[in-house]
Amino acid sequence: MTISTAPASEPVAADAPPAPGRRRAHRPGQAREWWLGAALVLPALALAVLFKLVPLARGVLTSFESSSGFGGSEFAGADNYTRMFDDPMVLTSFRNALLVVATLPVWIVVPLVLALLIHQRSPGWKFFRAVYFVPYTIAPIVVGIMFRQILAPDGPLNALLRGVGLQPLAIEWLNGRHSALFSLVAVALWSFFGLGVMTYLAGLATIPEETLEAAYLDGAGFWRRLFSVVVPMLRPTVAYWSVLCASGVLIWLFPLIYALTQGGPGDATMLPEYLVFLTTFQFLDRGYGSAIGIALFVFVAVLSIFSVRHMFTEGTRKPR
Amino acid sequence: MFRRSLAGALAAGMAAAALLTGCGGGGDDASDGPVTLKVLTWEPGGTEYWKQVKSTFEAGHPNIKLEMQSVPFDKYPEVQGPYITSQSGPDVMANNAGLELFDRRGAYVPLGDKAAEITKDLVTYSGACEGFDTGKTCYGVPFSYQGNVLYYNKAVLTAAGLDPEKPPATWDEFGAACDAVKKAGKTCLALGLSGTFPAYWDFPEITRNYLTEDDIRALLAGKLSWKDPKLVAVLEKLAEITTKGWANKNAPSITMLPDGADIFQRGDAAFAGTIISDAVNWEAFGKALGDDKLGVTRWPAIDPAAPLAQKFSGIEGAVYGVTQWSQKKQAGLEFITWLAGKENGELWVKYGKGQPLNKNVDKALLPSSPAFLKIQELVAQPTLHAGVMLSGPEADALARGWQQVTLGQLTVDKWAEQMQQALERSPTKKQTK
C-alpha cells in the first residue's frame, strides 16, 4: 500500500449546493423542500417574535416614556437613561450586582468539585447526590422565608455557632451592610448549587473512564485530575454552567430578595432586578423601571456574551 | 296608583341609568344567570368577616356572585400592580385611602355625582376623593376607620415596676419606661422596619408634634421640602426610637407584619404601634394577651402643646372601587354601594371588630372590650394622617433610611436628603408641584 502525498480531489457530493454565482437549476422538488422547511420553522419563529422580541421591543419603547402613576405616558427621550446616572439607588444596585458577579468562581468551582467527588464514587456518594439536589426543588420564596428564620439574630444558626464556642461568628447576618449581601448570595448558592452538581455529573459521564483511570495510575491527585483532565474536557459544560450562573445571579434572585431582605437593610441587598420591580409597581414609574430593566438586560448580555461565544466555539470545534 | 307606580319605576330606571353614567359608561353585564364579580382584597377584618360579606351580599343580591381573590396585605401591591399595568383582572379592588389610592386612580371608575348618594350615611369618605376633598373626584367607597395607637402589655409594664394604668404620655416618660422595661429583660417597642409600615404607622405619630394640618396637605402636594427643619426634626425623633435602644435589635431586617407584631403578641415587648382596625388590632392582641392585659394609649407626645399632639391621625380604611376595565361595572357599583351600607357596617363591627364609618350601625353591636372603648375615646378628635400622604418612593426611602440610621450607616441629615430625592422622583407628586 502506498501513501500518496498528492492533494486528494474533492469528492462530489450528490446533494452539494451549487457554487455561488452559478445559476441554480430550478427543480420542483427543491422548491417544495424549501416551502416545507419554511412551514416547519415558521411556528417557532412566530413564537420567538411574539414572546421574546415583541416584549423586548415594548420594554425598550416604554423605557423612553415618562409616566405618572398608572395613568397615561408621554415620550421622554433619553431622560430615563440619563436619570440613572444621578440615582444613587440605581448605582448602588449595579455595584451590588458586580459584587454578586464577583462570587461567580465559587458558583462554578464548588459544584464541580462536589460533582467529581460523587463521580469517583466517594463514600456516601449516592446519599450526597440526592441531598445536594433537594434544595433546588424547594421554591425560592420558601427558601427565603426559611432562611429568614435560620439567619435571625437568635435563630438556629447563631445558636449553633454559640453552642460550639464560635460566639464571634454569631453575627446579625441580615442586618449588616456586607453580611446581608453575603448571606443572600450564600442562600442562593445553597438553593441552586445542586443543579450545578447535576449539570457537571452529566458532563462527567461523557469523559471516558479510562482517561481518568490513566491519570490516576500516572499518580495524578484529586486536584491535578480536576484541573488537568476534567476541566479541559468539560469546557463546554463549564461554559454552559457559567452562563446560567452569570444570568442567574442577576435575574433569578428576585424571590429570595423579596422573602429575605426586600433589598435592605437600606440598600445593602438592592439588586437591579428588585429595583425594576420596586420602581415599576411600588413607585409607579413604569418608564424609569423599564429603563433600569433594559440596562440590566444589557449588563447581563455583555456578561454572558463571552461565555456563550466560547460555548459555541467549543461546541462547533471539529475533532482533531 | 298605577301612575305613581309608573313614576316610581321610571325614577328607578333613571336612577340606574344615572348610576351607569356616573360610572363612566354602561357595563356588559350578562343578562341571563348571575354575574360573577372578581374582588381583589387583602381581607381587612379577617377571613371570617369576608366570608360573611360574601354570603350576606349574595343572599341579598341573587344575580351577583362574588369571587374573592385574597392576598396578604404586605404582598398586595405586588399583586395589584401587574393587574393595573395590564389593565385587566378584578372587577372590584381595594387600596388604602389617600395617596396610595390617588396614585392608582387611573385604575378606578370615578363615582361622579353618585359618590354623595352612595356615601350619604358615612361619617367621612374624603380619603377616597382627590386631595381629601369630597368636592373633587371620588374613586371608591370606604367603610372602616383606620389609624394608629400604641398598644401596651400591662403585665410587662407591671413586671418592670411601672403603673399599667398610667402609660407614658410624653417622650421623656416613654424613654424612662423603656429603660425600666429593658432592665426587666423585655423589649420596649416591638418594631419591624422592612417594608412600608413605618411610613404608615409610626411616621404620622411623630409628625403630629411638628406639623399643622396645612403642613400635612403641603406634604401631600409635594410642596413641603424634606429639608424643612420640621420634617428633619420628625426624622430625628424616629431615629431616636431605635438608636436609643427602645426597639428590638433586629428591627431593620424584619417586617412589622408579622415579625414585629409577633414579638408583642408573644408577650416579649411592652409596646407595639399598630392600627385600630383590620389586622393586628386590639382584638388580635386581646386574644393573644388577654383583654385585661391589653392597654391602649396615644403615642407619647414630644411637644404636648403642639396643635395636633393630642389628636388622632385618622384615615378611612380600605377603599373599594370598580375597575376601569371591568365589564361588570353596574354589578360592581351595587357591591361597593352595599359595602358602604348599614348591613355591611354591622358585619364589620361584629366580625371585623373594627371601627365602622356608617352612622346607622346599631350601637348595641359595638364590642365591650376596654381597649376598643379607649380607642373610641381617642378617635373622637381626628386629624389628617400624614403617613398616607407619602408617595411610594418616599415611603420606601423612609423605611430604608430608618434601617440605615438604626445600623449607624446614615446620618439624619443624609436621610433627609434621600427623602427629598425620593420626593423629587415621585411621579405623582411631580405633577402637583
UniProtKB/TrEMBL annotation, chain A:
Keywords: Cell membrane, Membrane, Transmembrane, Transmembrane helix, Transport. GO terms for cellular component: plasma membrane. It is a multi-pass membrane protein. It is found in: Cell membrane. The chain crosses the membrane at residues 34-54, 97-118, 130-151, 180-202, 238-260, 288-308. One of its GO terms (biological process) is transmembrane transport. The keyword Cell membrane applies. It holds the Pfam family BPD_transp_1. Residues 1-25 are annotated as: Disordered. Residues 1-16 have a biased composition (Low complexity). Residues 93-307 form the ABC transmembrane type-1 domain. The keyword Transmembrane applies. Belongs to the binding-protein-dependent transport system permease family. This is Carbohydrate ABC transporter membrane protein 1, CUT1 family.
Automatic annotation (TrEMBL), chain B:
It comes from the Bacteria. InterPro entries: Bact_solute-bd_prot1 (IPR050490), SBP (IPR006059). Residues 1-17 form the signal peptide. Keywords: Signal. The keyword Secreted does not apply. This is Carbohydrate ABC transporter substrate-binding protein, CUT1 family. It comes from Micromonospora haikouensis. The lineage of its organism: Bacteria, Bacillati, Actinomycetota, Actinomycetes, Micromonosporales.
